[in-house]
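<context>
A single protein, sequence plus fold
<entry> Chain with its tokenised backbone below
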Amino acid sequence: MTKPWVFSDVSYGRECPYIKDVEIWIKPSIDVKLRYIAEKLRFLEFVAYLKIEKIEREDKIIYFVYDMYIPKQIVTQASFEVDKEELGKVLEYEGVVHLHPWRGESSFSHIDKTCVNLNHEISILMTLDGYTEASVKVRVPCGKTLIVTLPRDKIKVCDKEVLSELDKLDELIREKITTVVAVNQSFHQEENITHSLNSGKDDVENDEKLMELIFSD
């Protein structure tokens, strides 16, 4: 796609107090294919279109990438142009990923933001070293669509089946792990227990007093 779409209700941003945490999970087999194409083309850009499933969880929204399509395209070191005959086909796909053909970090260009990201629910950027950035359209309660920029640690290679294992882990954490509230600074001051890196023996004695206070009835 080469022309920007204009949406009056779309704005860019990284955070909003009314939306959940957002992540992108890429199916491992899709990740292998994308990296293989990137290594084959080396110093040339390319684009692939993605099928996604939106998974709403209690604490986050996950966009799971489970399929991809490689259209006919003309590529250079700095651009890609999808064959016009493919435009009807690629509209069936909600997501997109494209390569900046070098190693290291990279970020979306102005053209990426206006001509690629606005046209898709999710847009992923990758280099020869992997995924570096993504944008996701998130609807917020005020009625607008926020373009949320995701850093690389929010783009994960993971299968959807892992979610059931994470649910089991959540139950295990609630059942077997008890949190302990740390003693606050004012409590230290009231009991006149001080800590110093240079106090030697006094430091050990003070630690013993503190432990007695914590665990005494």
